[in-house]
Amino acid sequence: MTLKDGMKETPIQQAFGNSPKAAILNFLHAHVGYDYHMSEIGKHVGISRQTVAKSLPDLMYYNLVKASRVIGNTTMYKFNMNSQQGIKFHNLNKVLVDIVIADEEGVDPSVITSQEFQ
Q: With contact defined as beta carbons under 8 Å apart, do 23 and 46 qualify?
């Protein structure tokens, strides 16, 4: 599926839609190791800073996103690869990518097995 800006949806977007929380999580996961302030996240995801501010607490509650540092009065956020939830999300993303690749290659996605979940 293609988004209105011409970019293809990621497997996460295909599976969970493009809600603000899913979009934030997808963006931060795609940029593991980098941190961003709320305005930057909003700009890259295409939502307002206020929507980012409303969404981050839930993502932080589930340990998928963490505050990484403070620069002046600005808090920076990043995907939390140090949590079990972050690792599981990362593994789920890998499985979804495998399914998309299998589907594109004409392989029945139901036969895909993943070492991450065994």
A: yes
Instruction: Take residue 11 and report the two structure tokens written for it.
Output: 């497997």
pLDDT in single tens digits along all 118 residues of the chain:
444 455 577 888 888 787 999 999 999 999 999 999 999 999 999 999 999 999 999 999 999 999 999 999 999 999 999 999 999 999 998 888 888 888 788 877 776 665 544 4
In a domain, 50, yes or no: yes
Amino acid at 77: Y
Tokens found for residue 118: 């065994």
Angle in degrees, CA 22, 64, 118, rounded to 5? 95
CB 26 within 8 A of CB 13: yes
Domain of 74, CATH number, reads 1.10.10.10
- Domain that includes residue 82, residue range: 19-88
Range list of β-strands (E), the chain:
65-71, 74-79
